[in-house]
């Protein structure tokens, strides 16, 4: 057994054993409450530069397959689990989770009391941390100092690290009904698939794309994806969103895209204490009162009160959804231009499917815009 440690910037050290690759990795430590879907979590680009703590006690039961990745690689900076499964058991499994972590160079630690760690992060908030194992293990003071010199998440411009280098197209399934330009801020693979199933041809574009690149496609709609980092750094994406709003092209955003749309409409964003990460988070629609159980992964949120209406350069806007756990704003709807967004993940990979009809709402909006 090789020793390993998770070291927090407040000086706490949690000791366990190495899991995955050996070495050292720095990032922001956060916890995810999903009971399943660890493969989708690990390959979600929104987790770029974050060390993920799984609150579910046993991880790795179903191994690793070659179908469920949400991007081309694992993006987490480090991985923390309590009780890794010794033998994966699933007909789709091709190898163990520990083997895949090692293959992709992801440094992890197992055997930690993740319940205690999660309670600590709930009280103190997400913070800088490091996972150290093998030859990288050192004196506590030395490891804490390495963690404290690492960059934080506030002010982090990360979407450019995860966006596609070149545009690509996901063809519509069956008859092509619509064309959508999707700005890739860290898009998950299932999102274009969900749109393709509705007859949408999805053109996934790099973050550096211009409004001319979008209008050249003559799209029926524009989509803003999820992604990592601080939305306050995304001046280009916000400006591009404003240009889309000026043209009254139907627009739909999720997660990071919700924050981008909110900022384009004049709202500010703030860093949450520990964020929302999991597949069991309730959201209420202020118009209908309906509750959806949602998949989420965000550490920043829009300022405002649920149901609040305000004026913008593009007319009236409503803060349309909220989380009843803490009152966090979870959606934005423009009332005078065709645009809306939510803070959660309707593609549900992994997660519940309560929010899938939002893609149908986007289709309706594009139909009305013709």
In short:
It is built from 10 helices and 20 strands. The protein has 370 residues and is α/β, with parallel strands linked by helices.
Report on this model:
It comes from Saccharothrix longispora. Residues 1-175 are annotated as: CPSase. InterPro entries: Anth_synth/Amidotransfase, CarbamoylP_synth_ssu, CarbamoylP_synth_ssu_N, CarbP_synth_ssu_N_sf, Class_I_gatase-like, CPSase_GATase1, GATASE. L-glutamine binds at residues 46, 227, 229, 256, 259, 297, 299-300. The protein has 370 residues and is of the alpha/beta class. Helix content is 22%, strand content 32%. It is built from 10 helices and 20 strands. The strands form 3 sheets. Strands 10, 11, 12, 13, 14, 15, 16, 17, 18, 19 and 20 form an 11-stranded mixed beta sheet that branches. Helix 8 (235-246) crosses helix 9. The N and C termini lie far apart (63 Å). The mean pLDDT is 97.
Mean pLDDT: 97
Which segments are poorly predicted (pLDDT under 50) over 5 or more consecutive residues?
Answer: none
Number-wise, the strands total 20
Beta percentage is 25-35%
- Total count of helical runs of at least 4 residues: 10
- Terminus-to-terminus distance: 63 Å
C-alpha-based Rg, rounded: 20 Å
Helix-strand makeup class: alpha/beta
- Assign an overall shape: globular
Task: Specify the biggest β-sheet.
Answer: 11 strands, mixed
- Give the helix proportion (percent range): 10-25%
Order of helices and strands: EEEHEEEEHEHEHHEEHEHEHEHEEEEEEH
């Amino acid at each position: 057994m090789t020793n390993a440690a998770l070291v927090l910037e407040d000086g706490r050290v949690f000791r366990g054993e190495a899991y995955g690759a050996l070495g050292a990795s720095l990032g922001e430590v956060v916890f995810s409450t999903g009971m399943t879907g660890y493969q989708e979590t690990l390959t979600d680009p929104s987790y770029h530069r974050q060390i993920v703590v799984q609150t579910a006690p046993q991880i790795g039961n179903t191994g690793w397959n070659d179908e469920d990745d949400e991007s081309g690689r694992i993006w987490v900076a480090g991985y923390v689990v309590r009780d890794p499964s010794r033998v994966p058991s699933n007909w789709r499994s091709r190898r163990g989770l520990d083997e895949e972590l090692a293959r992709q160079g992801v440094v992890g630690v197992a055997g930690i009391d993740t319940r205690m760690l999660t309670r600590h992060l709930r009280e103190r908030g997400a913070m800088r941390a490091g996972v150290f194992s093998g030859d990288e293990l050192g004196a506590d003071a030395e490891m804490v100092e390495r963690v404290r010199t690492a960059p934080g998440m506030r002010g982090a411009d990360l979407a450019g690290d995860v966006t596609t280098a070149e545009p690509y197209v996901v063809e519509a399934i069956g008859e092509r009904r619509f064309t959508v330009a999707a700005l890739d801020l860290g898009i998950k693979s299932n999102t274009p698939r969900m749109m393709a199933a509705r007859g949408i041809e999805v053109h996934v574009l790099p973050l550096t794309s211009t409004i001319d690149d979008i209008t050249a496609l003559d799209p029926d709609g524009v989509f803003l994806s999820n992604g990592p980092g601080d939305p306050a750094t995304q001046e280009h994406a916000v400006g591009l969103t404003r240009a889309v709003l000026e043209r009254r092209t139907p627009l739909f955003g999720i997660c990071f895209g919700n924050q981008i749309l909110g900022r384009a409409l004049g709202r500010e964003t703030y860093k949450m204490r520990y964020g929302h990460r999991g597949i069991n988070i309730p959201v209420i629609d202020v118009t209908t009162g309906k509750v959806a159980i949602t998949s989420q992964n965000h550490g920043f949120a829009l300022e405002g009160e649920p149901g609040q209406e305000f004026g913008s350069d593009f007319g009236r806007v409503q803060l349309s959804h909220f989380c009843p756990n803490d009152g966090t704003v979870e959606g934005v709807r423009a009332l005078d231009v065709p645009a809306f967004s939510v803070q959660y993940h309707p593609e549900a990979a992994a997660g519940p499917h309560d929010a899938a009809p939002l893609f149908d709402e986007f289709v309706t909006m594009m139909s009305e815009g013709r």
